[in-house]
Amino acid sequence: MKIRFDRDTCIGMFQCVDEWDAFEKNLDTGKADLAGADEVDDDVFELEVPDDAELDAEFAARACPVDAIELYDGDEQVV
């Protein structure tokens, strides 16, 4: 599984931070950061989700009020 985070879309509600510790508050920018992620496009980050964190990653994606987080299983979007 991989998670894709559009940081430009993020509005800094930090609900993802409460759901998965891979997301961190960045109070300087007022947006979340996805720790260890690779930037694949301007302000778009991707990270392979460890097997033991798949449920937390799903909760983080579902909690985002502006759909800035997408979760993929292979090429299929799960959230």
UniProtKB/TrEMBL annotation:
Which of UniProt's keywords are assigned here?
A: Electron transport, Iron, Iron-sulfur, Metal-binding, Transport
Listed GO MF terms: iron-sulfur cluster binding; metal ion binding
- Top-level taxon in the UniProt lineage: Archaea
SUPFAM superfamilies per UniProt: 4Fe-4S ferredoxins
Sorted alphabetically, which Gene3D superfamilies does this protein's record hold? Answer: 3.30.70.20
Read off the InterPro entries from this record.
Fe-S_cluster_ET
Pfam families documented for this protein: Fer4_15
Tell me yes or no: is Glycosyltransferase among this UniProt entry's keywords. no
Tagged with keyword Iron:
yes
PANTHER family per record: FERREDOXIN (PTHR36923)
What protein does this entry describe? Ferredoxin
Q: Which organism is it from?
A: Halobellus rubicundus
